[in-house]
Structures are given as structure tokens and as C-alpha cells.
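Work Package 3 (structural annotation) set out to generate three-dimensional models for the target panel prioritized at the project kickoff. During this period the team completed the workflow that converts sequence records into C-alpha cells, so that structures can be stored uniformly alongside our sequence database. As a representative example, we reproduce one entry of 480 residues exactly as it appears in the project archive.
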Amino acid sequence: MAMTCPSTSTSTSMCRLLISSFLLLFFACFMSNTPVHGAGQAIAGYHTFDVSSLLPKNKCSAPAAGQTVLDIPPGGHAGLAITYNYGPCSRSGRKKSTTRIFLQDQSRVRSINDKSFTQYSTQESVADRSPKPKLSLNEDGNFLVDVGIGRPRNNFKLIIDTGSQITWVRCSSSKKRENHSFNPSLSTSYSYGPCISSTDTNYSTTYADMSSSEGVFGCDEFTLDPDVFPKFQFGCSRKIKGDFGSASGMLGLAQGEKYSLLSQTASNFKKKFSYCLPPVENNKGYLLFGDKAISSSPLLKFTPLLDPPSEFDSLGFYFVELIGISLAKKRLNISSSLFASPGTIIDSGTVITRLPAVAYEALRAAFRQEMLQLHCPSIPPPSDQKLLDTCYNITACGVRYLKLPEIVLHFGGEVEVSLDPAGILWGTEDRNGACLAFAEIPDYSYGLTIIGNRQQVSLKVAYDIEGGRVGFGNDNGCMN
């Protein structure tokens, strides 16, 4: 039925105003009930999924819009390209190893869920009796960004981690830039010791796989293109144990009042940042800071950041309210209380999402039922990994394009996030199989639900710490 207005000028103006208001209200209501999607938007609860997309890629794709400094308008904020630490865009020559990734992922989950996990060591500084920072998260690093350190500037690849507060870089006294190392003596702007008051001179960082980094705090010019911070405190690591891959160190994006990047750059970036993690290793994503991190996606949907349980109060994790899961447009029979105690965090360093046993079993059963209808033969998990237990020979389904059931995560604030197909399936290294990319919280753990980076791919995830919220947006596979 068409809407018409009377012919008199006054009545016509009022009528048009009412119609405009009605249409805006209708659009707002419609959008509030529309899920946020990754790159692959589902239709009627199903993705049309190209099986060949799980095959390894040999060539890095061209940079997407939003990934380079050239895309940033004058006065805008930093945009850094994100790459996997393996594959053609990493320039490291490393190949994807599921065995390695999952072993380290299990170590990280064990650390996060350790009830006795502490942010600081008990050793006290002789200088000021302040606690020495001591982290315990596993880090080979899934995603890397380039940052500039020193004057003249040198670029270093750092692991992005929302579970770490300290930023540190591998240091060396070599006159050549060997082993991805920073030489403080070659920077005219470097100063030894902390530039944040009440800070210990030394730091020690130990990870769950027993790799570690030890060194001293220093200050230097720190560049997050195009922004430059003349006095940024970071750890200068002189002793590293273990394998950090092609990374030179860590970019700590956890919340924190002293050492964190977010606190040190708050006057510029207002404790706001966002990222889009690429769905496959031959694509690039991006990391944004400041107002641009939020304003560049006007259709972001926000869920509140929650206060952490007391055991995790000083760790800087991002707690959110996960209240349910849907598969193929059907809400699973899962109580929201399962995700509430001890809570749910969103984490850039964990790979595979961990769910409470009852929730995982419900999701697995519903997924298996859907896959039966596709006539895809189930297969045992690969012998070199036991983390994922629901696997299929997708090359034997008889079709190139699968009707893959959509998975939606429901958050507080009426936020619905539809996962990209790459966040639903994990391809096996034999190129024939794929497994449901979720796992059960291990029995030995404290019980935190963790939303891993695999489920975040292709989405824009925005953190507004001062606003107390986390947003999700459709970013077309990190192409917007």
C-alpha cells in the first residue's frame, strides 16, 4: 500500500516528516535484528561454500582497501596490514603446520584458564620494590603487523595479542639487523630505562610452552603509521628462549593502566582499536587505532564489555556476554548461564573457540545432523591432532559447492554475529578433509569460554575500552 500526503503545503511537510521518521524507525528495527556477517553472507541459514577455498594458496593477494597508509586521510589514524605468520603474505617462508598450531593453542588455553595464573611475579625490584611484569601466555603468534621503532626508523614484525599488556622487541648489539633484532645503540632517540613512573627496570615474560623473553625496559620513538610516539616504553629483550617464528616481538593490546600500548597512546587513540583478521593466508587484514577504528564502519553492532571475575581482574582480558548459539537458523538448546560463569572472553591469540561441554556437544550434534544431509563421509581426526573431533572428507561430497550450515553467536545487547565459512571449518593438511572448528573446554581448565581468532576472521572487531563495549561489523573478508 502506497503512502500519500495531502496537497496543502503545511500538511504535506508534516506528512513527509512523519513518513521519513517511520521509515528510519523501520530501518533501525530491521537492522537491529539482522546478524553481522563475515565475507560470506548466508541465505536462509546456509552458506554456499566453495570446497576449493580450503586448499593452500601460493600467492599473496593485492592489498585490500584500508590496509595501507595511502588509504588514510589527512589527520586519520593508523592502519597496519595484518598477515598470518605463515603462508605467502608473511614473507617468512614458513608453511602452515596444524600440529604446531594446535599444540600451542592448547598451551595458551591452559594458561588463560589456570586459576592461579598471575600477571606479576613475586620477585620484587631492588630499585623501587614494584612487581616485575610476568606473563604466561603461549606465543608463536598467528597474526603479525609491521611497526616502526627508533630514529632512524626500522620496521619490525610484532605479534598482535589482546591477551598481553607489554610490548617488547628482540634486541641485539650487532651493527647489522640480524635475526629481526633492534639495536638500541643505532637509534639516536633511544633512552635506557623506563619512561613510565613506578616501573621496574627489568621485565620477564614466560609462556605456557616454556618459551620466554627477558630484558630491560627502554623508551624510543614508536611508529604506528602514520602516528609517531616520541617516548614509548617497551621491553628490550636480551634473552629469548623458544621459537617465536618470524616475529621480532609482541604488540600488547590487552587492557592495562601502565605498560599497555592502549594506555601509552590514550591521548591520541582514546583507547580504541579494531582489526579484521584475514580468512586465508594469502589475504591481508588490517589493524586500526583511534576514532577511525570505530567510525570507518558505521554499521558496527556493540555488545557491552563486562567486568572480569576477581581472579582475572589485573590481566586485561576482554570479557563479553555470550548468551547463545544458532545453527542453520535454529537456536540451540543451551542455557546462557553456561557461558556466564566464570565468563567468556574474546581473544586474538587463541585459535579455536572453546565452549563448555554441554554447549559444544549440542553444536556438534546439530552440525553432524546437517552434514549427514550433504552425504559427506565422516572421517577420523588426523593422527597428528586430537583437538578437533568432527571431520569430513569434503572432496567426497560429490559437489564443489557445499550447502554449509550457518553458525550465529548471540551476544548481549541483541547482537548476532554470523561466522564466515572459514570460521566454521578447518581444512586438514592432506587437502581432502575439513573439521568443525570448535572444541570443548578441557577438563583441567578453570572453565572460561574463549572466542578464538578462527571464529573472528572476515569480521571487523572493534574495541572501545572507555566506552565499555566491543563491536562487530561486516567487512567483506577485510576488503572494506
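The first strand starts at residue 36 and ends at 37.
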